[in-house]
User: Fold this.
Amino acid sequence: MSAILIVDDSASIRQAVKIALGGLGHNVSEAANGAEGATKADVARFDLIITDLNMPVMDGLTMIRKLRTNAAYTGVPILFLTTESDPGIKSQAKAAGATGWITKPFDADQLSRIVIKVLAK
Assistant:
């Protein structure tokens, strides 16, 4: 299955995503902020990254911009999983290279369907 990185400052969100996607057979790694996520992405290769927007140290937008400069991540899907719903922020995320947007709270089945669809492309 796929290697997935979940980047969120909430341990409970990371755990919920890990349970939902790990149950599908995916190998899920965790990072608590964008800086940690970018570092983990430099060390290991992920097939999908799911990130929160608002985090300490480095936010999700900054992390996406950093990852998209790395040739290994130009085509890797990156999904936002966030409480943010502002259309302007969504536009910024798309311009930065985000593949999609999932609003918290999320449904595990919905997350699983979206991940399967994004990884199939």
